[in-house]
Amino acid sequence: xxxTDKSGRIVRVAAGQGFWGDWLEAPRRQAEGGPIDYLMLDxxxxxxxxxxxKQKERDPKMGYARDFIGAVESIxxxxxxxxxxxxxxxxxxxxxxxxxxxxxxAERAGVSKSVRIGVVTGDDLLPRLDELIAxxxxxxxxxxxxxxxxxxxxxxxxxxxxxxxxxxxxxxxxANIVITGRSTDTALTMAPLRFEFGWGTxxxxxxxxxxxxxxxxxxxxQCSGGNCLYDWxxxxxxxxxxxxxxxxxxxxxxxxxxxxxTGGRIxxxxxxxxxxxxMGDPHSYITPDVVADFTTIRxxxxxxxxxxVFGIKGRPPTDKLKVSIAYRxxxxxxxxxxxxxPDALPKAQLADRVLRERLDNLxxxxxKVLSEFVGASATHGPLAGDPGDPPEVQLRFGVRGxxxxxxxxxxREIAPLVLNGxxxxxxxxxxxxxxxxxxxxxxxxVDKSVVQTRVEVLE
Amino acid sequence: MKVRLLDIAHAxxxxxxxxxxxxxxxxxxxxxxxxxxxxxxxxxAAHFRGVITGKVERYELPNLxxxxxxxxxxxxxxxxxxxxxxxxxxxxSTALLRMVLDIPDDExxxxxLPGSKQWPSYxxxxxx
Lengths: 459, 128
Known about the structure:
The structure holds two protein chains of two kinds.
Chain A: E1 11-17, H1 26-32, E2 38-41, H2 48-58, H3 67-73, H4 76-80, E3 85-88, H5 95-109, E4 117-121, H6 129-134, E5 155-160, H7 165-172, E6 177-179, H8 187-197, H9 204-217, E7 245-248, E8 254-257, H10 268-275, E9 285-286, E10 291-293, E11 298-301, E12 307-310, E13 313-315, E14 320-340, H11 344-361, E15 368-374, E16 392-401, H12 404-411, H13 417-420, E17 425-426, E18 436-447, E19 454-458
Parallel strand pairs in A: 1-2, 2-3, 3-6, 4-6
Antiparallel strand pairs in A: 1-7, 4-19, 5-14, 7-8, 8-12, 9-10, 10-13, 11-12, 14-16, 14-17, 14-18, 15-16
Helix pairs in contact in A: 3-5, 7-8, 8-9
Chain B: E1 2-4, H1 5-8, E2 9-16, E3 19-26, H2 32-38, H3 41-47, E4 56-61, E5 66-71, H4 92-96, E6 100-102, H5 105-110
Antiparallel strand pairs in B: 1-6, 2-3, 3-5, 4-5
């Protein structure tokens, strides 16, 4: 398993996906570009679970990230012959069906004898919601404080974020592919380090180090040159960007690295940008396993494209788990029109006023109407200052509300402006805007004691 | 001396619900105290006046030469509810880097801060 001897043993955990929709090439490049022990694939963002739940409603065999099947198909030799183990939260709301699809793929590839699939379940709270609410678990929204009962009949999915323990259990039962549902992104990296080095469940500093290693690589190339603002002009060969690899040591220190002959750049600056990404209170990064303190992290240059991370402190976790709940929250549509020079912005502004008046005259009511002027102020608002007389400005006009018919009617009011509104308008070839059902995110907490995870290893 | 944040710091932003976070990182370690002293919570709240609807929180990470700002009410409800182009707060980072600081000349010289160039109209005009 290990790539060096016991004394200074290094375990390599490579990131191959940062979200569902990430680069399809990355898993294969990580498996083939150099030595790795584990490939970590993170597929789940906040609203991904609800998309998967909708797919499962249409077909009970669906509800997992299907990209994962293509990913393992592209690396069977690494898994079956070279002993690379794969950990992924690709199971979504249906880990057993995901495992089934992986097993069938292994059979087709003729490698099923050397594949043991670990399946982690127990995070799905949807079938238990009424029982939980009746038992006094309010599942109140962490942002607004409202109890879940206010939207209960519109809930699509509810999953507890679970930690590293069931993954470690699957690894200890010799699974070489571990499939979870709503595991935390960071647990996917921390679990193999904890398993390999035998860290205890109260080894807070090392567990916190594993979590921070996970945070650094959970967004894939976003720590190795992707989306890096510092010196972006000179980051080499983004076309062949190398995804990150954690080289972990038993003492909890680790190096962030990437395979040789890959593009991108790993530096203290690129790693720092990722460390602060989506950060809340840096003293308390709360996970099911440990609370990590980001103010203790030390970074050190460890050679070209290598950053050493050390000094990390952790403390015991809370007795709660975060729950990711998705619910139906009305409808929205966004339409766009492009106005050209001269006076592109005043033309777009006039179109905006005309459109608002027409919606009013129709008596349409929305919870929110938002117009933006792309090319002038859409992303930075008043901070952008005077745009001058730009070559073009896009009017981007959106509405949302509970009344689907009103949103539908709005989508018919964009195209007429081409002939009956301000001049020099183009860029409407996409047709009428699409009405989208909004599936919104409801973060809540639940007592740890009510969530029991289960691990099954399929031979 | 006028010093633009873009010339002394880099940044990355992201979202948690309706809150955007901006991590602001000093380009040179010796410039971190400038960020800590001048890029205050109140200064950032004033910078984003009219852009966000809620309060601003600030956390210090001297170990990373970085500050972390939480901008509440920044994302029109956030996530899938938001109608904004930047529904996930990805470019609040560069919006913060538009800020121009007034640094005493001797302090700026001692720290070798990159000084006033001819900037485009990156900053909100004083009369607004």
